[in-house]
Each structure stands twice: as C-alpha cells, then as structure tokens.
Amino acid sequence: MGTLNMAPAILTFGLVMSVIKQPEFSQLVQEMRHRSGLTQAELAAKIGVSYYSVNRWENQKTMPVSLALKRVEEILREMGDRGADLLEQYFPVEGQ
Question: Which residues have C-beta within 8 Å of that of residue 51, sequence separation ≥ 6?
Fold first, then answer.
C-alpha cells in the first residue's frame, strides 16, 4: 500500500461513503497519532505502509490508497472513545 496524488479520496465501504481532501486527511493522521501516542513509523506499521507514506500524508504531499484509508478507519474504531469523534467526522455513516 503506497500513496496516490493529491486528488480527494472518494471511497465507499459498505454504508460508509468518505470524501476526504488532502488538508483534512493530514489533520486526521496527525490527530490520530497524537491521541494514540504513536510515531509516524509506528502508525505506518499498524496501517501496513512505509514511514515515508505517513510522513508524506502529514505533509500534504500525497493521499493514501483505498486500502490504507480503510485501515485508518479500522484503527480509529479500535481506539474506541479516543477516536470516536474523528471517526464520525471523517467517516460518517450515510443516513445519520
């Protein structure tokens, strides 16, 4: 799993439709790392990408591929209350 150009990520996972633009995704990754106490390298390992991918996401250079974005969503779910508001903000469930 690598990175893509800076076009918005538009992904559909079941009932979840997510449109995340580069600046928003950068903020999401930074906040997620801060709340979980992970370094860029540690978060990269959890997602299954390189440290350089996470670094480039945070520096607004690239966007993640869909599998990496799905893994970010899964990690937010695993964070429980610490990630609930980020999950709701960036991965809202349609109809809610």
Answer: 40, 41, 44
Residue 58 covered by a domain: yes
pLDDT in tens, the chain (96 residues): 554 444 444 444 433 335 788 889 999 999 999 999 999 999 999 999 999 999 999 999 999 999 999 999 999 999 999 999 999 999 988 655
Q: Is residue 27 part of a domain?
A: yes
Do 86 and 28 touch, CB atoms closer than 8 A?
A: yes
CB 89 within 8 A of CB 27: no
Tally of domains within the chain: 1
Helices 66-78, 81-90: crossing angle, 10 deg rounding: 140
